[in-house]
Hints:
It is a single chain. Helix content is 41%, strand content 19%. The protein has helices at residues 39-42, 53-65, 163-180, 220-239, 285-294, 299-310, 314-320, 324-337, 342-360, 371-382, 388-399, 405-412, 420-433, 435-442, 448-459, 466-476, and strands spanning 3-14, 73-74, 76-80, 90-94, 103-108, 114-126, 130-132, 141-143, 150-156, 192-202, 212-217, 247-252, 257-263, 273-274, 281-282. The protein is an alpha+beta fold. It is elongated. It has an eight-stranded mixed β-sheet. Strands 4-3-14 form a three-stranded antiparallel β-sheet, with no helix packed on it. The chain has three domains: 3-289, no CATH class; 297-412, no CATH class; 420-476, Arc Repressor Mutant, subunit A (Orthogonal Bundle). The model has no long low-confidence stretch (mean pLDDT 93). Residues 10, 195, 213 line the site of magnesium ion. This is Aspartyl/glutamyl-tRNA(Asn/Gln) amidotransferase subunit B. Its EC number is 6.3.5.-. It comes from Ectothiorhodospira haloalkaliphila. Residues 328-477 form the Asn/Gln amidotransferase domain.
Amino acid sequence: MEWETVIGLEIHAQLSTRSKIFSGASTAYGAEPNTQACAVDLGLPGVLPVLNEKAVAMAVKLGLAIDAEITPRSVFARKNYFYPDLPKGYQISQYELPVVGRGHLEIELEDGETKTIGVTRAHLEEDAGKSLHEDFHGMTGIDLNRAGTPLLEIVSEPDMRSPREAVAYMKKMHSLVRYLGICDGNMQEGSFRCDANVSVRRRGTEKFGTRTEIKNLNSFRFLEKAIEFEVERQIDVLEGGGAVVQETRLFDPDKGETRSMRSKEEANDYRYFPDPDLLPLDIDSTFIEQIRAELPELPDEKKNRFKTHYGLSAYDAATLTTSREMADYFEAVVEQADAGQAKMAANWVMGELSGALNREGREIGDSPVSAQALGGLLARIQDNTISGKIAKEVFEAMWAGEGDADTVIEAKGLKQITDTGAIEQVIDQVIADNPKQLEQYRSGKDKLFGFFVGQVMKQTGGKANPAQVNELLKKKL
Ligand code: ADP
Ligand code: MG
C-alpha cells in the first residue's frame, strides 16, 4: 500500500470508413497482402492526399460523445521516422492542434461507484503497414494494405490508479466507439488497441514517477496483466535503489512479462511540421450540429434509462448496456414477455443466454434463440405453465433448435402440474413412503421439509408447481 500506480492510456481506434483517410483505396480487412495500398498510401512522388470527410465526421462524433471541445481549425502534421512498414518515411498525424480537445469519460468501479477520467485529446492519423515475422524464416514480410487506414488516437489524462480502472476505461471507450458506429472494435484484428503509460510513486508524493509505455495491447486481459507486471517491476527497481528508465516496452502474453523494446525518443526527434500537402481542417458549427443530431442514445443515457424505466440495479443496467446489441436484445425480450418482468428478463439475458453465448464463443447477434423466442419462454414462466427451473431445460432445447417454447413444452410434456388434487396425491404417497422422516420432522427436525419437497419434485419430474407443493406439504405434514 506504500506505492501508488498512475496510468494513462493512448487508445487507437481504427475508423470504419470504407476507404483510406487520404486516398480511395479500400480498407477491407483480410485482402491479399499489398493489394490495397495505392500510390498515395505509399507516398510516391507527385501524389496528393485528400482528406476523407467521413473520418472527420467520426472523430467529431466521438468528441461530442465525450463532451469535448471540437477544434475549429486543426492541422495535419508529418511525423518523421523510419520504419520498414512506413515506406513514406513519415506518418501524417495531428500534433499541436488535434481535431478533438479536452473531454471526459465516466467509468464504473466494482463497488458501484463511478469515476471520471479526463481525455486530453483525440487526433486523426493514418496507420502504418504491418511487419510479419511469423511465417518467414530469417526474413520479415511487409504487408502495406493497412497503410493509410484512418485511426483516431484517444489520449487520456494520467487519471487511472489501478489496472482495473485502466481496463474499465478501455472497456467503456470500446463500448462507446461501437455505439457510435465509428469503429468495429475488433481487437483480434487490431481495430482497437492501446498503449499503456505506467508509473508508480510513493503515496503522498505529488510528483509523478518516471513512466514506461507498453505498446500495442489488444486485449483487456493483456492490458491488466501487462500493467500488473510493470507495476511490480518498477517497485522492485525503486526499492532496490535503482531508477525507472523512460522507455517503450513490449508485453509477452506467453511469459506474462514486459521487456524493453527501445528507449523513449524525445518528441522532437520526430521533427513534426505541418504537412504542406494538406490544408488546415476547418470545422464549422453546422457540420457539428448535423452530427450532434445524428448521435444515438449513448451508453450512460441508456444505462440511466434502464435504471429508472425498468427499475434495474446499477450493475444490471451497466452490464446490459455494454453493447447496443445486448441492450436492444434485452428490450425486445421485455416487450415480448411482459413489461413487469424486466428483472427476470435481465437475469435471463445476463445468465442463461450470456452463458450459452460464451460457451460457444458466439455474439448475441447470432444467438440461435431470438429475443422474441426468449420473451415467449419467459411468458410461460409468468403464466405458470412452467417453473423457472424447467424453463432452463426448455431453453437448452430451444438453443439446440428444437423449436419455440410452446413447441418444446408440448413435445417434452413439461407443462407444470397445478392441479391441487394431483399434487396432493403425490404428497400422500411420499409421506406414506417415508414414515421415519415424517416422525423426525414432527418431532422438530424442520430441516427435513426440504427433503419432502425434493421427493415430491422427483416424483413429478420437477413439474409440480413449487409454490403449491410448499403450501400443500406444510398443511399435510
Ligand atoms: P507521448 O506522446 O510521448 O506518448 P504524452 O505526453 O502524449 O506523451 O503522454 C502520453 C500518455 O502518457 C498520456 O496518456 C498521459 O496521460 C500518460 N502519462 C504522462 N505522464 C505519465 C506518468 N508519469 N505516469 C503515467 N502515465 C503518464
Ligand atoms: Mg505515446
